[in-house]
Structure formats: C-alpha cells, structure tokens
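Severity: low
Component: inverse-folding endpoint
Summary: output formatting inconsistent between runs
Steps to reproduce: submit the following structure tokens with default settings.
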C-alpha cells in the first residue's frame, strides 16, 4: 500500500492540479484501497475503490491491446509472464547456488554407491581368493585389495623385485614383503588343502558340522583378465564415490553452512533429504526433527502404548555417541533444538556464514561438559550476541579487503602507465643523432627566414617616419632607394646589426 515516486510523477503530470480549498471535478479509480488512501494523503488527489472500479479495471486489462495501437497480444502475455517470474523470484529469493535438490540426489546416490561398492568388493575378494587366498588376511581395505588384485594378477609372477612397487601401492614395506612371501608359499602353488570345521549347538542338542574346502587354484589367462577388469571397475566406483562426497561437502557448505558446522555434512544432508527440502526442515519443530527417521518406531510405540523413540537420524551425530546412556535422550533433545535454529538461519538469512553454527556447536559441547562434569554453560542470549558481533566484524573486514584490492589494482594501473611513459621517453632518447642534427638545421633555417622578414619591415617603418618629417621629395627618393637596397641579400651591415642585438640581449 505504498505509492512509488514513479506513480506520483505520472499522476502529477497527467491529472489536472487541484486548487486548495476546492473540490476536484474528477476521481481516480484504484484497485487497492490502501494505495488510494496513500495517494490522497500525499498528493490530495481523490481516489475511489469499489466494485464498480474493479469491474472497469478488469475490462481495461482485458481489452488493453485495443486501447493501445502498437501493442500486440503476444507482447502483453510476455510482459505478464515476466512480471510473474520476477514476483515469484523476489518472494522465494531464488538462488541457483542454494538449490537443495542437488544435495538430496547426492546423498541418495552416496548411499546406493556404498552398497554397490561393498557388494562388488566382496565379489572381487571371493573371485580372486580362489587364486590367492592369503591376500584376504593381509589386506583388509577393499580399495587396496582391488588395487593389488589388478597389480599382481598372477601370484606366481611375484618376486622380490616387485616389493618397491607394492610398497608404493600399500604404503607399508613390511606388508609388501609379507605379500611376496605369501605368494611364494601359497596353497595354490603347493596344492595343499586347508580344512576348517565350524561347530554350532542349539536347543535340542543338535550339532551342525560344516566343512570348508578352501584352496588356491591356478586360473587361466582369460579368467585373470576378467578379474583384473572387474577390479579396475571397483576402483573407478570407489574413486567416483570420493569425488561425490567432496561435491556433497561443498554443496552443504553453500546451502546450509550453519547446519553443516553443527552436525556434519552427512547427517545434515540426510535430514534435508528426509524432510524433502531445507525449507521443510526449517518449518519442522525441534520435537519432530528429533525423531525424524524413526517414524515406524514412533507409530509402533503409539499402537502398543510403549516408550516412544528418543532419536532418529540425529543418532548418527558424534554428540549423542559421546553422551552417557542416561543422558542420550537429553542430548538428543538439546541437539534437535540447536539443529532447528541452525536450519532456520540457513533457510531465511541472506548472509551465508557458519558463525552461528560454530557458536551452537560450542553450546552443545558445553552442555556435554555440564552433563559429565557439572560445568555451567553460557546462556543462549550471550552466545547469539557474540555471534552477531563476530558476523559484523567479518563483514567489515571483507569490505576493507575489497577496498584494498581495488586500491592495489589502481596502483598497478598507474605503475603500468608510468612505465609506458618512461619507455616512450627512452625511445625518444634513443633516436639517431642524424635526426637531431637535421632538426637543429631546420630550426636555424626558420630563424633566418624570420630575421629576413622582420628587417625589411623595420626599415619600412623607419622610412615612413623620416618621410613625414622631411618635406622635400628628394630625401624621400633617397630613402626609397635605401629601402630597396636593404631588401637585397645579407650584407656586412646586417651581420654587425645582429652582433649588436645579441650584445644588448646579453646585457639585459
């Protein structure tokens, strides 16, 4: 309900002025009554807003292309569409870098990749274990096992020359020597059978005896090539999983920096994906956020009238794991409260910084100390004041840095200009001496010409003065002859005159 300056200028230009103390002979129809009241208060123009005015404005909007000659219906539709987009963007405050859908997709893909990499690495262990069974006990990591399976291929080809290369792969020389020794004394080479027996008893005194035959076998070259290709595929998948995790970390720091600094990237991303979006998570109360991910247990407890769950996805946070068993519920409730505050700050604040998340994390640490040692934590009001002060100082320092960068760029440009000018002067100094001599000669010639032109003019002026003083025509004739003679080329008298002039100038 606020009148803009543009609207005010338009009304004052196109409407007749209303004199003071007199009623206006017109009325302005306005759709919004608040805008009309503001116009009358600011300008004194009478406005009216009722059903009749609204119907008239609706008809004007409908037939606007007929009132304006050069307006097309397509232009009007484009203008309406652009207005709708700009209005919705202004309301939602849309930012491409803060789209939380990418985080939801990334965390889902990470979970599926974890399952796939684990199942494929187990398949590599089982497949290559038929050829080199001792390698499973030496190397526990799946990625390293796939690397070694691709590098070793045939265990009979391993020798002491390969120990440096194996040490570079594993990062441990002792393990590399152990692998080479195990390859030499492998069961596949000696064709020795190891038997393992597992006994398990249950009710009814039933005993199950299971025998395992696990011996290393020599594989054909084609089988070894297939194992090698599959190990390479597992390595590629695990590397892609690492890159995807780094991408998720960067996106979480852009979208929800406070939530990330408080609870971590993985737990924060799982909370956002389970809620549907960051705005939905910000709308959730702390009690809902606490049991987010434990809906089945909640409804089962409500049906059976049992104990409701104390935590859901928030259980994966390190704070709840560090708390004692009797304080886990309290810690989950307190952490859910801080997570709801952090998510609301991330969703609705224009400034993207992790200061509030760091301060909230400090509060959670203090609460843990309070539960364990009894140390009194700080109040929430004091912590938020400190966070706001830090945020203000950081913004001021960033502005100062930007100014310094601008000053440095200006100084660099000035230095470049001065360097270019110095180079130009140096080029002028480096010109050949012949050109300098030629310029001096031209200057001397110009001076001589100037002197020649100045001397006859002076003589003519003197002749005119003498002619006026002498009345006889004879003297005029003589002086005219002298003037004609002076126009001729230089004589010895001219040289004397020049010398006299130079002496007088030196005396001056």
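Observed output (run 2 of 3):
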């Amino acid at each position: 309900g606020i009148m803009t300056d543009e609207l005010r200028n338009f009304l004052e230009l196109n409407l007749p002025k209303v004199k003071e103390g007199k009623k206006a002979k017109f009325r302005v129809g306005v759709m919004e009554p608040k805008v009309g009241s503001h116009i009358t208060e600011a300008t004194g123009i009478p406005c009216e807003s009722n059903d009749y005015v609204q119907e008239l404005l609706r008809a004007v909007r409908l037939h606007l292309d007929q009132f304006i000659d050069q307006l097309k219906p397509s232009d009007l539709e484009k203008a309406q569409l652009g207005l709708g987009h700009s209005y919705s963007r202004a309301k939602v405050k849309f930012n491409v870098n803060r789209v939380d859908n990418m985080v939801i997709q990334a965390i889902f893909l990470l979970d599926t990749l974890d399952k796939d990499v684990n199942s494929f690495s187990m398949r590599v262990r089982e497949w290559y274990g038929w050829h080199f069974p001792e390698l499973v006990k030496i190397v526990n990591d799946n990625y390293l096992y796939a690397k070694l399976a691709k590098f070793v291929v045939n265990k009979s080809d391993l020798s002491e020359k390969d120990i440096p290369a194996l040490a570079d792969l594993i990062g441990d020389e002792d393990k590399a020597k152990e692998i080479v020794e195990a390859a030499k004394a492998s069961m596949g080479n000696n064709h020795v059978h190891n038997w393992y027996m597992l006994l398990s008893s249950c009710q009814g005194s039933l005993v199950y005896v299971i025998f395992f035959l696990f011996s290393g076998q020599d594989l054909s070259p084609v089988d070894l090539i297939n194992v090698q290709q599959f190990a390479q595929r597992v390595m590629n998948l695990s590397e892609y999983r690492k890159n995807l995790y780094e991408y998720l970390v960067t996106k979480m720091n852009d979208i929800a920096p406070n939530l990330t600094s408080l609870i971590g990237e993985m737990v924060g991303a799982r909370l956002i994906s389970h809620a549907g979006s960051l705005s939905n998570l910000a709308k959730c109360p702390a009690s809902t956020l606490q049991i987010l991910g434990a809906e089945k247990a909640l409804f089962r407890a409500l049906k059976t009238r049992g104990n409701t769950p104390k935590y859901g996805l928030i259980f994966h946070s390190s704070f709840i794991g560090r708390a004692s068993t009797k304080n886990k519920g309290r810690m989950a409730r307190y952490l859910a409260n801080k997570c709801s505050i952090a998510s609301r700050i991330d969703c609705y604040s224009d400034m993207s910084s992790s200061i509030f998340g760091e301060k909230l994390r400090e509060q959670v640490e203090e609460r843990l100390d309070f539960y364990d040692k009894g140390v009194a934590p700080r109040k929430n009001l004091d912590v938020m004041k400190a966070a706001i002060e830090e945020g203000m100082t950081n913004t001021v320092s960033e502005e100062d840095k930007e100014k310094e960068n601008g000053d440095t760029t200006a100084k660099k440009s000035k230095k470049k200009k001065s360097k270019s000018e110095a180079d130009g002067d140096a080029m002028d100094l480096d010109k050949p001496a012949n050109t300098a001599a030629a310029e001096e000669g031209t200057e001397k010639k110009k001076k001589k010409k100037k002197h020649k032109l100045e001397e006859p003019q002076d003589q003519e002026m003197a002749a005119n003065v003498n002619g006026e003083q002498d009345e006889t025509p004879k003297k005029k004739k003589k002086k005219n002859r002298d003037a004609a003679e002076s126009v001729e080329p230089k004589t010895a008298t001219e040289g004397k005159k020049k010398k006299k002039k130079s002496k007088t100038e030196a005396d001056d």
